[in-house]
Structure formats: structure tokens, C-alpha cells
Amino acid sequence: MNATPVDPASGVVYPVGLRLLGRRVVVVGGGQVAHRRVAGLLEARARVTVVSPSVTPALEALVEPGSLTWVPRRYQHGDLDGAWYAVAATDDPAVNAAVAAEAEAARIFCARADDRSASSVWTPAVGRQGDLVVGVHGGGDPQRAVGVRDAVVAGLTDGSIADRAGRTGAVGGPGSVVLVGGGPGDPGLITVRGQQVVSQADVVLADHLAPQSLLASLPADVEVIDASKLPRGRSMAQEQINELLISHARAGRRVVRLKGGDPFVFGRGMEELEACVAAGIPVEVVPGVTSAIGVPGLAGIPVTHRGLTHEFVVVSGHVPPGHPQSLVDWPSLGRLRGTLVVLMGVDTAPAIAAALIGHGRAPGTPVAVVTDGSTPTQRVVRTTLDGLAKTMADEGIRPPAVWVVGEVVGLAAGAGHVPAGTSDDAEDED
């Protein structure tokens, strides 16, 4: 909608929330404005019909699975029959006026995308956080509404606007557990949903590789528990972590398990989920950016590249080849032509490199080692597979580190980006 001022004599807007589940809504027009309106209507689970000779590719993709009905022609009088709500979003003011006139005669509320003053309803700037919906009307200025909406949603996300009711579990009832992947360490790389649940937590069990600055912003009444697993050092037993998740949730608290990377990439997330389910605790999983992809990407290294590699494999290097606990098929990986990404593989790097070469990987294959990925101290060291052991020793490489084997390493010259945070999915050894 445009920002043309609306005569105050027309009355102030009366905000309501339309419950459109299963109700027919007609959108006339198939361009970008219609696309945005349809997205919100589908989220409300309305039965959407789009009337337009052509539609955007994204709208067309929704037709075959039945998400919406497309009538591929120009608008005709009668198209609004049976509708509860209508949107006039063509680039032809005459068509939009005709749609609005039919809607007015049928007592159907209609939003005209080209003329706010001629609309019987104004679409607010909408933001969502879980089941909380924020809608803002800007008094005729959509950009003003968007700015206020974004500020409110950002405050709810980072906790500066307290949603205390949203944080409180049912009185006398069980709380819940959310397993959150914090990404490679930079707090800006956690997902929006991840940041939301952290800001609403009563208890946070955090790894040392999780975004630590998020913990500093939590209210004083939020209990933060150090559940770190240091490489070859001090660590909280997994059984104790599981018990803490369950006991706090049973006490009616909202518990967040904040982990580095993604909970299901060498993060024991499934063990924690199974423990919660067995105890009857509601549990949610929030995926995170895994360091296996994110850290090489931040160093300018793609794990795949068209015409160069069609495959990549992520390996835990916490035990070396030949170790009785190793589940890795090293002979197959030695024959691999694509990209190999190794996590938790600093101490075992010499043995892994030797195994890969012994099983067919070329000794001169490029290797990049990225330490402290996504932090201000991120460092990238380049070598070859046969030079990896010496490079690791000479450069004093220590965890957290991710190393990449393959021709994609050569694509990264002069590339890379360093945000702020910490790194790696690994929460066990290395």
C-alpha cells in the first residue's frame, strides 16, 4: 500500500485478528504484492484462490500441491462469491476498483493494494514469535508500521521486551525442553527461533562452544548451567546433563539446551531427546548452522562446487583409523573424489591423513585447516594431505578446528569472512 495520508474523518482503524482457517479468500493479482499477501493468508491456513492471467513462479509452485487455487484469467464480476475476505493487488487501478466495489456490495472486507483510502480494511505489518502475533498500523505510513513492528519483534527475540507469560510453564504442570543449535559460535549466526527460545528460558544448559555472549544478555533470574565437554579434559557426564534437563522441566521450567553447531551433528542431541521423551517431557529441536558447513563457508571454502564436486562427507575424527570404536569406513573415504570435512580431528589428523593416502587419496590433495571459526581469532592454514601432520605441529593447531580435504580448498584464495563468536559442533573429544 502507498503512504497517501487518509482523512481522519474516515475514522480510526479498528484492529481485529481474522481467523481464516478453512475460509475462502480471493486474491486478485499474481505479482509480488499478491505473493506477499498470499504468504500470510496461507500461514493463517485460509483457502486461497488467486485470480490472475499470470502469477510469480513462487505462487505457481503452490498450485500443484494444492496449497492454493489459481484461476488463470482476468478478474470477472462474481469471482468473490463465497469469499470471507478479498485482496485487490493488480497493477490496474480500474480492476482494483471493480474488485473493491463487488466486495463492498457483498459486505466482504477488501484490501486495495494501490489505494488505502479506498480499502475497507488495512493490512498491518505483522511479526510473529511462536504463538504471539504483533500487528502494527502506521496511520497511513507502511514504513513506519514496519519499523515499529521490527523493533517490537527484535525486543521480544533478544529479551529486552519481556514476555513473562510466554516464559512461564503451566502451574503445577511439566515444563519443556528445547534443544538449540547455536551455530558455529558467532551469536549472529544462531537462528531466529533459537534466539527466541533462549530469551524465554528459565534454565539454560550451555556448552563452551555455544554463543557465550547470548548468556550475558539473559535476565538475572535465569539459571545458567555450564554443561561443557572440554577436549580431552573436564566435562559434564551425559547422564547428568539428561537428568538436569528432566528435573528442571518436571519442576515446571522452560529449559534450553544450548549447544554449538547443530544438536544432531556429533552433538548427542538425539540422546537428550530420547531421554526427555522417555520421561514424558515435551521437547523441541531447533536446528543450528553446523560448523561442518558454516566454518569452511566463513573461510570462503564451499563444500561443493558445480563441475568440481558432487559430494561431501562429514567425519568425526575423535578416534583414529583402526581404533576399535571407530565406525568410519576409511577405505571408502580414501577413494572419495569429493570433499571431506573432519570435525574433532586435531590430534588424530596425522593418522587420518595417512589412512586416506593409504587408501587412494592423492598425497597432494589440498587441505585447509580453519581454527576458531567465526571468531575474531579465526585462522586458515593451507597445506596438502601429505603435509598435514607437519603443518599441524608447526602451526600449533589446537581445537576447535575444522579441516577440509578436496579441490574446493583451492577456490578460496582471497575469500573469507570473520564475524564474532566461537566455533565447532564438537562437544565430546578433541
From TrEMBL:
GO BP, sorted A to Z: cobalamin biosynthetic process; methylation; siroheme biosynthetic process
Alphabetical list of CDD domains matching this protein: SUMT
Limits of the Tetrapyrrole methylase domain: 177-388
Pathway it works in: Porphyrin-containing compound metabolism; siroheme biosynthesis; sirohydrochlorin from precorrin-2: step 1/1
Active site residues according to the UniProt entry: D207 (proton acceptor), K229 (proton donor)
Protein keywords: Cobalamin biosynthesis, Lyase, Methyltransferase, Multifunctional enzyme, NAD, Oxidoreductase, Porphyrin biosynthesis, S-adenosyl-L-methionine, Transferase
Chemical reaction(s) catalysed: precorrin-2 + NAD(+) = sirohydrochlorin + NADH + 2 H(+)
Protein origin, superkingdom: Bacteria
Molecular function per GO: NAD binding; precorrin-2 dehydrogenase activity; sirohydrochlorin ferrochelatase activity; uroporphyrin-III C-methyltransferase activity
Protein name per the record: Uroporphyrin-III C-methyltransferase/precorrin-2 dehydrogenase/sirohydrochlorin ferrochelatase
Protein's organism: Petropleomorpha daqingensis
